[in-house]
Specification:
By secondary structure, this protein is an alpha+beta fold. Strand 2 and strand 3 form a beta hairpin. The chain is globular and about 50 Å long. Helices cover 30% and strands 22% of the residues.
Length: 181
Amino acid sequence: MARIRGRDTTPEVLLRNALWHQGVRYRKNLRVLGIRPDIVFLKARLAVFVDGCFWHGCPEHYVRPRSSNPAFWATKLATNTERDERQMSKLEADGWRVIRIWEHQIKDGLEDAVRLITHALSGGDPPDDEHWVVIKVEPTLEPDIESNTQKELRSKKYRLVTRYRSPIVRKGAGDSRKNVS
């Protein structure tokens, strides 16, 4: 846990480098209203957050850790998503535009993320897309299935989604099970 970074993560650095090479100048980790977005554009009043799929509850990639303390992880995820919601609301109430980008969106389509930000900087509104987050994960009776409760940060909607995941197989542990996809 000591190696986990709060800033200058690989996706953040990739995005910042791509923006810099496009000639876009920004401030990083600048405190705005007591909040520290990953990338800040002061004149445009645009705040960009790069959310890690695990720490912020990506609905596509978040998997509940199989640990001896599931209550800790449930509380941690709920605290992170509530903080994200509070920060967005506070910035938007003060006239800031907020863009949240998932870590996997940068890894899979860096050009699209840069295009999204440059479009917002050129005066266009950032897309009012849905930004779903996982707020609760519970195992079901079947060991490889868990239910994820998700909500959208801007509209406070809730929905229940069930998704499948594979069991964890550790190499060298004498386990002959195969990883099921």
